Amino acid sequence: MTNAANPSSNSQAITPALTRWILEQSEAGHDPASVLQAMQAAGWTEAVALQALEQTLKQQLDVAQARAATPRLPPSQPLPAPLLQGSPLYVDAGDRQVAVLMHLQNPSVVLFGDFLSAEECEGLIAAAEPRLARSLTVMTQTGGEEVSVDRTSDGMFFSRGESALIQRIEERIARLLNWPLLHGEGLQVLHYRPGAEYKPHYDYFDPHEPGTPTILKRGGQRVATLVMYLNEPAQGGGTTFPDLQLEVTPKRGNAVFFSYAQAHPSSRTLHGGAPVLAGEKWVATKWLREGEFH
Ligand SMILES: O=C(O)CCC(=O)C(=O)O
Ligand SMILES: [Fe+2]
């Protein structure tokens, strides 16, 4: 066994070097007891050594478990994505040239400008408003739905293609993201009042939850999300990505896209709707599935 990284003289903080060393020892087949012993010999206290060991091995186990539970998409399996080769300022979405305002490669996060016109935003709000109910979150325990404290917005789903406006927007999304229209769920509209929020979450269905296989029968996993901003809250209400330290401003007509090849936190697609501090917020969300959603 190689020598463990030494604790710095004035602190026993767990360092990346120590974590790396623990992983190396574990991969080389050394058992936890001897790794612990070597850490103590290098000057780590037993408590810190145990904590570092537990933390590192648990992380490794989580990744292994997720790999085993998630059927891996074949490497060539495409994901929804706009064509950004050659760094265009606008992407052709059929009936509209959509501005590319920013993109992050890994995970893929793209901010689009002028995706919806002001009239389209108003049309969606007007059609959704009479049909709003307190948002339900899919209960992955059972596959049913429940009122959730993590999501204090009101929401509703349109059926796919239910009006000319919806159809037009769905065709635009399919074209922009190069993903079949039939692989998309119906558009969801959410309304946040002052103080309302949607706590950070993943949009994919947790492969470990017992209700997930039932949900996946309707078109497989979610693989990407497009959140469209339909109005402008006076303050707050951005879409936050805690792992990326990114916050997207909810500007009317703009839309933020992100995709996740793996239904796992390593996708770093944790995101939420930050509390609306003043005014209200309306968004429409399109979720894209691996297969045909019916
Ligand atoms: O309201 C937002 O900014 C995020 C909405 C969202 O995460 C969702 O609809 O899944
Ligand atoms: Fe979400």
From TrEMBL:
| Superkingdom of origin | Bacteria
- UniProt signal peptide: none
Name the cofactor(s) required for activity, per the record. L-ascorbate
Write down the Pfam families for this protein, in alphabetical order. Answer: 2OG-FeII_Oxy_3 (PF13640)
Ordered alphabetically, the record's keywords are:
Dioxygenase, Iron, Metal-binding, Oxidoreductase, Vitamin C
Mind telling me which PROSITE patterns this protein's record contains?
FE2OG_OXY
Keyword Iron annotated: yes
**Residues of the Fe2OG dioxygenase domain:** 183-290
Check the record and name the InterPro entries matching this protein. Oxoglu/Fe-dep_dioxygenase_dom, P4HA-like, Pro_4_hyd_alph, Pro_4_hyd_alph_FE2OG_OXY
Q: Which Gene3D superfamilies match?
A: q2cbj1_9rhob like domain
- What protein am I looking at? 2OG-Fe(II) oxygenase
User: Which organism's genome codes for this protein?
Assistant: Curvibacter microcysteis
